[in-house]
Amino acid sequence: MSRKYLYLLFAFISFTVQSQEVLTLEEAIEIALENNFEIKIAKNNAKINETNNNLANAGLLPTISANLNNNNSQLNTKQTQADGSVRELNNAKNFSLNYGVGLDWTIFDGLSMFAKKEQLSVLEAQGKSEMQATILNRISNVYITYYDLIQQQQVIASIDSAIVISNQRVTTAQNRFTIGKASKLEVLNAQVDLNTDRSLLLNQKQFYKNTKIKLNELLTRDLQTDFKVINEISFDENLEYTKLKELASKQNPQLQAQILSKKIADLNLKQIKGNRYPTVRLSSGYNFTRSEASLGFITQSSGQGFVYGITASVPIFNGLLQNRREKTAKYEVENATYVVEQQKLTLESKIASLYESYQTNLELIKIEAENVEIAGKNLDITLAKFKIGTITTIEVRTAQQNFIEASVRYANAQYQTKLSEINLKELAGILSLK
Question: Origin, by domain of life (predicted)?
Fold first, then answer.
């Protein structure tokens, strides 16, 4: 095993032993699905649309109500009869009571109620699409943040290995200075480089901690929860552009939500057109009546029984508002159509761009992996020559920085490839939620 790999192994072990909890990606996704507030809100909104989708909201069911009407009066009354006689009574009491159960049912309204019911079903489906879009987006953020931590973990390991080498340089330079084979300047340069690496490591660790806080926020748990992530990134190299585009046209939640919005606009136009037709209502009930009067020919009466009837109304003229409403609804349908086509074009553009990045990054991974191998071998040779005093510290530092930069580029290439893969799967609606 080359010295490069020993450095990386040492750095990785020294870094990971300090952590306490191993958080797998699957566990992170499970926690987010259970705890994330935005996902919970999206699920509740979907349930609201599901609850609202019923026959009553569409106006297809009758309404039944209990009615009570009690009127009382106490009047000074004076009545003149047909024969000219006059009847008077002070504080004449009058009483009437009506109560019963009534039913009202719209049995025809130009089929608007059926369009309304279909619209409620579409709204329910749209709510589910929006919920799915929210879930995919939040889980995508979990994926991205998790793999960002892996990338940063690898960068920290590279810087750690550089610090090991810088410590060796300081020790070697000090020994060479002690026996008179090097100047104090060489020792000082080695110490400056060591402090530079330490400063870089501190900044990178702070960035790493901030990203862990971000992931804890996505998981909706204590922001200071400590954990470590795995140290490897695997890739799906079987993604095909044509298949991704086909899946996105069928499964992309945002596109499906826009298609459903277009259907809602169509149904809204249908409901408005229904206002041109007659409205027919049935009414029925069972009523009890009772009345009493202190003065008059009838001092007391009562009754009970069924009442029923039918009413119909036909709109004739309403100031041309019907025409304007229909015209507005048609424009809304047209706009919804444009939005769907724009969404399709935007979606295809994103997939094409991301797929190109994905393909390029896969090639970059191979190149950067080779660069890491070359930079590692070069560093091994440089260190060996430095120990026997055949090269300067500047050459050692250059080889050391080349190795760090190659390692960082390799980690970034892996992360960028995974980022493109995650975004492609999110757009295609195939991002795993397990």
Answer: Bacteria
